[in-house]
Amino acid sequence: MEYEGKHVAVLVAGSWGTALARVLIDNGHSVKLWTRNAAQAEEINRDKRNSKFLPDAQLPEGMTATTDMAEALDGATMVLFVAPSSAMREVARQAVNHIGAETLIVHATKGFESESLKRMTTVLAEELGRAEDTIVVLSGPSHAEEVVNRQPTTVVVAARDIRSAEAAQDYFMNEGYFRVYTNPDVIGVETAGAIKNIIALGAGLSDGLGFGDNAKAALITRGLAEISRLGGAMGANALTYAGLAGVGDLIVTCTSRHSRNWRAGSMLAQGLPLDEVLLRMGMVVEGVRTTKAAHDLAARHDVVMPITEQLFAVLFEGKSPARAVEELMGRVRTHEIEETAVSSVESGRDSKSSN
After folding, report:
1. What residue numbers does the annotated binding site for NADPH cover?
2. How many CA atoms are closer than 13 Å to the CA of 352, on its beta-carbon side?
């Protein structure tokens, strides 16, 4: 199967979808953004602005938006899904009848479906009637605010079908500022992208409580162990977590002012209730939903995830952030290497008494 042509549909017009649309336009493709919001579409078309999601960015002349799904998808040779995880299935259902059989499907959403705990490639495969092996996930250390301003960025596109991954690589990669690697480990890339948002919430909590770099470094490192442990139990390749989609994305999300999850965690540490934090954010904070999903996945796969467990208690059970940190620090002593090593489902299970 070959993917040729120049028209791309981006569903939806949030910050990341808009930033990736800029990359595609810079690479010579025509792009149509789809949004439910008529005022947002008008602003993009008239002013070349997306003020809610990227208020400081001037968008390129070639970027246009529509609220008509059929119009956005008409003639598309690639469809890029960037809907929130909670809306992915619904958006795919609206799109399916307008997508050609040979159209390349890519998604760039970092999360799980809350009810089913399914990864986004699985959700898209089910709704679009596609082989999951051909669906591509784009992930890695990348803030929309930097990509839209053409700051140097490197990401990964993953698919079990190497032809699909390479086709996506061709669409996105350029020599100016956006470098793209391929990876066959879809499970590893998707779990890394989703669960790192939980650790970023924790990093925001740590900073909001006034803890220093020592605490955050430990949180990031032990967070990577948790990501690797659950991912290994789900069938991922442990090496993926040492790469861009793993440690790279984890670092950028836990340390940057652009991170929504970090900002949400910081506000929680200041005593704001979750509902007020989400209201103030005004945008989806994937780490909140992902915390519940990962908590449930850990139980399903018999994997212990202490950081996730404590954040779940803070978000959904009313535990104070300070108390959560105390309980993490007061856990029974154990061996670091035993905790971190994850190479198979069994290694995830063997670590039940660790971390």
Report:
1. 15-16, 36, 110, 144, 260, 284, 286
2. 9
pTM of the model: 0.91
Greater model confidence, 349 or 176: 176
Give the pairing of strands 153-158 and 136-139: antiparallel
**What is the enclosing helix (H) or strand (E) of 126?**
helix 120-128
pLDDT tens for each residue of 143-168: 999 999 999 999 999 999 999 999 99
Domains of the chain as residue ranges with CATH:
7-184 (3.40.50.720), 187-353 (1.10.1040.10)
| Matching residue, tokens 């340390």 | 255
DSSP 332: P
Span of 22-36, 81-95, 193-207, 334-348 with lowest mean pLDDT: 334-348
Binding-site entries for substrate: 110, 260-261
- Ramachandran class of 284: left when φ > 0, alpha when ψ lies in -120 to 50, beta otherwise: beta
Mutual orientation of helices 306-316 and 321-329 as an angle, nearest 10°? 160
DSSP H helical segments within 209-284, as ranges? 213-234, 249-255, 260-269, 274-281
Q: Which pLDDT value is given to residue 332?
A: 56
Catalytic, 196? Answer: yes
Q: How many CB atoms are closer than 10 A to CB 326? A: 11
pLDDT in tens, 215-249: 999 999 999 999 999 999 999 999 999 999 999 99
Catalytic site residue from 32, 48, 52, 196:
196
CA distances (Å), origin 193, targets 34, 111, 276, 349:
24, 7, 25, 22
Q: Which residue has the tokens 């996930």?
A: 137
Sign of the Cα torsion 319, 196, 131, 13 reads positive
Farthest CA pair distance, the chain: 60
* HSE (side-chain half, CA atoms, 13 Å) at 33: 34
